[in-house]
Amino acid sequence: MPDLLTHVLIAYVFGAAAVWWADTPDRYLPVVLVGAAAPDAMKATVLLGVTTGTAFGVPYSFWGLHTLGGVAVLSGIGAVTLAASERRTGFWLLACGGVSHLVLDLFVLRVDGVAPPYLFPVSGWLPPAANLYTSTDLWTIPVALALALAVLVMRRRAAAG
């Protein structure tokens, strides 16, 4: 699962910057990482074989979890699990992680050259795919790991000095 690991490592880079910029405690950093993994909840439904169907005669599909609207819904659900005083910060940091996931997915190689409608429900526009890597490419892990380690070292030095 190089794709998921890359998403989490890059989210660490963005999350560390977000936590520093918003001047929030470091305990919120894992929240960003969970947000980065959340859009791939759709892949779990594929494994379970419940991607589409009907419930009480109403059709449903889980493809929307991997969109901007899905990130907002999953961030809201995640924020509800936090203490009331931390929900707003938790929501925005979960959303930050989820949006970083969607941005990275814009660079995935697509046969037709366009990415899925990640802006749903705001827009049905299909953005052009950058076609930089496939989700199974292993070279993304060392790149993401190097960035994450550089940020970790900078954070440790800043805390020590």
From TrEMBL:
Pfam families: YdjM (PF04307). InterPro entries: YdjM-like. Keywords: Membrane, Transmembrane, Transmembrane helix. It comes from the Archaea. The keyword Transmembrane helix applies. The chain crosses the membrane at residues 6-22, 29-50, 62-84, 91-111, 131-154. This is Metal-dependent hydrolase. The lineage of its organism: Archaea, Methanobacteriati, Methanobacteriota, Stenosarchaea group, Halobacteria.
